[in-house]
Amino acid sequence: MGLSFLRRLLGKVRAELFPPVSMQTPFRRRRVTQRGVAPEVRSRVVTKLVEAIEEAELLAKASGKRTRRGGGGISPKERWYQLMAYLAQVLDGVLKNLDLESVKEKMDQIDLVLDELQRTTPTSG
After folding, report:
1. Are 63 and 84 in contact (CB under 8 A)?
2. Does residue 125 sit within a domain?
3. What Cα–Cα distance (Å) separates residue 66 from each residue in 28, 74, 78?
4. Up-side HSE of residue 113: CA atoms within 13 Å toward CB?
5. Which of 10, 28, 62, 91 has the CB geometry, 3.0–4.6 Å to 49, for a possible disulfide?
6. Which residues constitute the domain of residue 74?
7. Which pLDDT tens digit goes with each residue over 86-97?
8. Per the structure, how many domains does the chain have?
9. More confident residue, 21 or 108
10. 70-87 pLDDT, tens per residue?
């Protein structure tokens, strides 16, 4: 699984939370939460985020504690745990119906951490 699996999961989360404008049909009525996310979308997103947290934990446990050249002084293990923290913050935001813009900002931070991990971890998938 690894990094590519996490990227696919997070891509699905992003697509669920931030659909393209053309996919948002104004005529279709459905029950939505206070922040505009339908309950069924929210439950799918929560499931994917929990799955991503579990995958990041497995990768963190398997990664090395030593810093690689170009890693900014932070070991891969620490980066995986940093990623887990960001994922937990996004999950918390989805569960508490926080503003989608703050969730999007956290998702952008996750992308940066994933890029760093891909750059500094040779066998991350």
Report:
1. no
2. no
3. 53, 8, 10
4. 23
5. 91
6. 3-120
7. 999 999 888 887
8. 1
9. 108
10. 556 788 888 899 999 999
